[in-house]
Amino acid sequence: MMARTKSDVAPMLAKIVSDLPNGEDRSGQGAMADAVARAITTGRHLAVRAGTGTGKSLGYLVPAALSGKRVVIATATKALQDQLASKDLPLIQGRIGSRLSFAVLKGRSNYLCAQRIKEVATAGMQGELGRGEGDEESVGEDGAPFDQRRGAQARLVLAWAGETSTGDCAELSFEPDARVWNAFSVSAEECPGAYRCPSGGVCFAEAARERAGRADLIVVNMHLLGADLASEGSLLPEYDVLVLDEAHAFEDVASVSLGVSLSGGKLRSLAAAGRQALSTSRARANSAARSSAAEAVDAMVEAARLFDEHLSSRGQGRVPTPIDTDSAAMIDLIRQRVEHLEENLRNLADDRSAVVLDGPSDAQRAVRALAMSGRIRDVLDVLARLDDDSVAWIQGRDRLSLDVAPIDVAAVLSEVLFERRCVILTSATLPVGLAVRLGASPENVDELDVGSPFDYEHHALLYCAAHLPDRRHPDAEKALIEELGVLIEAAGGRTLALFTSLAVMDRAAQALRDVVSYPILLQGQGGKTALLEAFGTEPKSCLFATMGFWQGVDVPGPTLSLVVIDRIPFPRPDDPLLSARRDRIGASAFRAIDLPRAATLLAQGAGRLVRGPEDKGVVAVLDSRLASASYRFELIRALPPMRRTDDRAEACAFLEELRATHEASD
User: Which stretches of the chain score pLDDT less than 50?
Assistant: First the structure.
């Protein structure tokens, strides 16, 4: 692709926008595109806060497409990744022409594994789709037992495997059960690599990587980007520019990606892979080999049980670094068991007579199990040398895990990311100073806020229920629920109520179902997609939800007139990673860590209200601290520029006016 000058960006953007239905010139989008083009040219990092309605995707895609450089775009979700690839980029390519190439690249487990397909087709699905824990009494939405549904889904996947050219699970017309998909795919931990796999020449994941290697623009999700950074660039092709869309989410993704996790479940998965690999004709023919194999697998299962017991005895929360003597002994025991299993696996994997280069083989199962064991040994190495720069903690519900993450991701990201290429960060709720917090040099970052084209001042009202008691008061929850009921009645339903607590959400729904005149949809009583569809098609309904709905929910139009936020979403004080960061920062930790995170999430929740130029309504925050706390204006500045009130009568009057308008047009 030939590079063009920055002056080409504005006219090309105008042409592409004109191709859109109801396309219109947006000054913020133009300013963003100009700034992105300048950043790519100069190599300076750029942080752009682009409010809802700006059209930020085109604001960075057009200058990236014209830059003549290889650009990676990392999104917060695979859904946004697919949107860019199916809508925005084809639109740009239609104007620029075939000299612009783009590709989508996802993690390996998102693609069919050609080798697993061969193995299942040859040996049948028996054993691949075993019953999961707790499945005995479970049925699917269609009333069929899970094992029957899995069989039916597996046959559909096998049929699709013979037709697909990409192997990308996003092409499926249904979302398969996790166990079904796992039978036909492999994780990065299992894959031995194309050169050690007989199906490496027809591997869907490798084909996707090859397409990405030839593309000008590569669309990935942040988790794959994080894995690439953690693996020192082994997953993505070389690139010049990185765009982080929804960049406010990247710090947490980077923390997970640059850390490690170990659980009894992972050890049991290794044992299962070993059992499958070692159940071979070669192992069966030799009683000594058979005995050694069985012993190795059983020892691995026992190690998983002991590790589960060890974690349970410690309880959830932070653990000391470096690790204590008992934990060190447990890690050493696991390492011994892993090495014992590996000895048996190597005997099979190295048996050239078992390798069939054009089809499935027992040896390939051993190679995949060896890849898994190697990843686990890497994790054990990290656990054995923990220091004060990392934080370790035990977490989980039914199954516990030991997790480790760097306390400060900035030091790592500075070296592997910001010092090597131009980075552009953008989000509708981008916190001030995020690029520096992630590791960019302050002298090499430009920040820009292009606002939003929506008329928030006249279309939206921010209401703080300043009269409500402190949440520690015995009557606080009752007062909150009563306030929510009054607001719902004023709005005529049309309410998205966002809670920071699942328990409070459940109690509020239970208390209000017999009080308000409108149906209440509740998170957990159906999938997210189904709930949003039901909410969007029944304009007088209410949807009660927790953190999974604070971001990425787009319900434009009269269906939504009221967004209620039950309290300021400060992070949990006992979050192990944030706790370690607070300890390191000291007295200023609240303003450095907790307040920016709360402000970003509050803005994300409030941003669910106005999704189009004609949308109107109220954002109601049922937390009096937004009206009285010393830090309140730092929170308010993160929100769209709405009119503000603490008068319930004013908020209800605005909602009642909207309700009358909507009911007249229904």
Answer: 126-127, 130-146, 281, 283, 285, 352-360
DSSP 239: -
3-state helix, strand, coil in the chain (%, to 5): 55, 15, 35
CB 105 within 8 Å of CB 204: no
Per-residue model confidence as pLDDT tens digits over 259-281: 999 999 999 999 988 888 776 54
Look at domain 456-665 and name its CATH class. alpha beta
CA-wise closest residue to 468 among 618, 619, 624: 624
| pTM for the whole structure | 0.88
CA pair distance 566, 543, nearest whole angstrom: 13
Euclidean distance between the first and final Cα of the chain, in Å? 51
Q: Which of 140, 62, 126, 75 is nearest to 105 (CA)?
A: 75
Domain boundaries, the chain: 32-107+214-256+409-451, 109-129+146-202, 262-406, 456-665
Q: In this structure, what token pair is assigned to residue 66? A: 């014209």
If one looks up domain 32-107+214-256+409-451 in CATH, what number appears? Answer: 3.40.50.300
CB atoms under 10 Å from CB of 315, counted, come to: 9
Please give the Cα distance from 382 to 46 (Å, whole number): 34
Strand intervals (E) in 275-429: 317-319, 390-396, 400-406, 422-427
Sort 449 into a burial class: Cβ within 10 Å, 0-12 / 13-18 / 19+. Answer: middle
pLDDT in tens, 601-617: 999 999 999 998 999 99
